[in-house]
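FAQ: What does a multi-protein file look like?

Like this. Sequence, then tokens, then the next protein.
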Amino acid sequence: MPTAPLKVVIVGGGTAGWMSAAGLVRLLASADYDLTLIESDEIGTVGVGEATLPHIKTFNDMLGINEAEFMRDTQATFKLGIEFVGWDKPGDAYIHPFGTFGEPWAGLDFQHHWTRAMLAGEDVGPLHDYSYAIEAANNAAFEFPNEDTKSIRSTYAYAYHFDAGLYANFLRGWAMARGVSRIEGQIVDVGRNAGSGHVETVTLKSGAVIAGDLFIDCSGFRSLLLGQTMGVAWQDWSEWLPCDRAFAVPCARTEPLLPYTRATAQPGGWIWRIGLQHRTGNGHVFSSAFCSEDQARETLLGQLDGAALAEPRLLRFQAGRRAKAWEGNVIGIGLAGGFLEPLESTSIFLIQAAVTDLANLMPTRGGIDRRLADEYNRLFEVHYDRTRDFIVLHYCANRREGEPLWDHVRNMRLPDSLAHKIALFEANAAAPDYKYGLFSRDSWLAVLVGQGIVPRGYNRLADSLTLDELGSKLRDLKRRIRTNAAAMTGHGDFIANYCPAPTAAKPMESAA
């Protein structure tokens, strides 16, 4: 006889809950899994992001979502990268693009050829001149990448800026239309099996009891099931990421509509700026050890480029992750499992990765194989630890001397894994190139070089080209990038023609 479907209960809505529901209902056979999501309209959610990474397009495409419809419904714009202002030292700026730097020549990554020319004294210009995505971003332009991989217009990807609250609502409707059950209510009690310790039921304020075989904890910072019930310890990373507060506030939209996020360093932290169709999202991430809440709020309001649309909302957090994401029959996704500040728009990606990994390792009605949980936890650690290193790099590689926060992070002891990456790049221009996890080689190059870390050497195989040959290829590449990017459509015009959103959408207050 066929077995009954595995009962999967998702605790909490928001972006994490509804991405989990949508991903699992799309990827899993409906006859084998019964998906229920419990959320309460009385409990607010923390907006985990308005800015995303290109991986979100893969997730939406997997769901089969119409891009223009999704963008209209979430007031979305396109994103080609992130501009970092003042992170190396005041007055400097660079862009971390969603695209490649240059082209591989003679079987070697581009940065080795650029480094060789630079060290030889050639007038090659900065590395960032060789990124198509950066040139387009600087021109406030956007078009879809060319599908011909031989074209210079194929060398970039894109992500989105969207209203996180509207995105969760969009996924809620999408998932419920495909069989996910939603239950409104607050959880007041958790029932566990006396022998295994597994969660068996959750009791709602109404008195209803919901039973399940597998529970996904999307309860946010409370971590109701993974942290409070299962007792999984929290690993505090504030020694490397001391920012523990953020004010968020929307303001009126201004022109031009930029196709990139902006992160501007401040004495006590940094400020984000994210342009949506109906407004601009702003926030100030700061360390309470180096900046008071009053100072942070005043700084944020003084940096707005439009009229504030609400009072600034304060969020408190601690960087880190749970020692495990999967314990017993409970899996923590989103803030219930870990938190990294929104500097590189990683929160939604980490949710997406968790959902994808869970779908690949999903247990059946026959029981939970411990090896599935072990593998899930290994992947969870890889994602968070590698992402942590990349974010810490932005802080430690700075020359903002005389500012207590920046002096502290510049001189702090680094994770061994990050210290090794920096040393290897300085010695030989070798950048991390993961097959799994964030971030790509080009992302590491953008931040390493953008913040003043210059290699002292390069892979000697780059010497196979003469300096004359190399100079000619560099000039030609730069010309092709500038010529093609100059012909692109303005970002605002592209949005107006492709996915204009209704003007009456209610502004949200989600963080970056």
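And here is the next protein:
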Amino acid sequence: MRSDLSRLLTDQHKRILWNLRIQGAAPRAEIAQQLGIHAGPMTRLTRELITLDLIEEREQVLAERGRPSIPLAVAGGGGYAAGATVHPGWLEIVLVDFAGTLIAREAQPFASPDPRVFAEAIDARLRAMAGERSLMRTRFLGLGLAVPGPVTKWSPRRRRTVEWLRGWQDVDLPDYFEDYLGVPVFVENEATCAGLAEFYDSGLIRSCDSAIVFFLGHGVGAGVISRRNVFGGEHGNAGEIGGFFPLDRARPSAIDLLKTLREAGAAIETLNEIDQVLESHAETIAAWAVRAGDQLWLAVDAGIGWIDPGAIVLSGGLPPSILQALGDRVTRGKDMIEHPSQPSVRFHVSRLGSWAAAIGAALIPIHEITASVHGSPV
């Protein structure tokens, strides 16, 4: 199911929008030159996009000669999208506008393995959040769902989810949720969603062509961005690196830290309670960060060797201080991943935390509209 907006836009419209997403605000003449579009058609195309509230004119910029130029930029008013995900113990849901700006976010307790219960919760909160902000349903572009687990060999629309979401297995998830909710639904792995969110949030979309985002949540996974688009691989499972870290051994995952803390006596049940024991179990956390950081370094180094990304981002459902400690450990020996004769790889630690998955899921319907003209849709 595709949004009405996607059907209204021509490839030329999408090229203009994509150009503005990558480079930021720019005058018509500059965009026309970059895209090889004549002045007349450019004026018409941008006027149509302004009418749809997809781009807007910014303040005039004084030029050394001639008339001041009026930069154009992607606008938020043309539509909005939602994203949602589940973590062990709670769910998160966000709204973003067409420019990719976060409008709202909410979290609430959730522990059911039944996808129907999840759909009911999302339906209720979507209606309430949109109503509270007077958002028009006709401008809703779709719902993205970030789901833990790889695509199965039986169908690209089914996922081998984690055990506590066993009710989601053997279900055609896009069809299931579209039938219940009556809106376009996009389902993607949580690490892939986080990769898209981090690529937008960190500004990497404007400064590099590719990135690898390591997301620590139910397990450990990676979102791979190539040519400024999500790279899914042959079967949709690119970035499924959990197999590097067997389940019967210590792993660099958020769930592994939770287990480690509980074995050390911490009276916590879910990931969002780790904040409560940062001081009381500081030594346990520090030791875990050293071990997990060393494990992650191997995956990071391999990713750099295979993909040659412009950036590496460390993200996940952990408190910022723990993500930073992991990042410090991974980059402790920068000379080990930087070669004297090769360009260096930028390294970022996420500021989005667990929200990266839901935000990235919300960006999928928006990203699909403008990026699909340059590559395969998400």
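Q: Is there any per-entry metadata?
A: Some entries carry free-text notes. For the entry above: The chain has three domains: 4-74, 80-193+357-374, 203-353.
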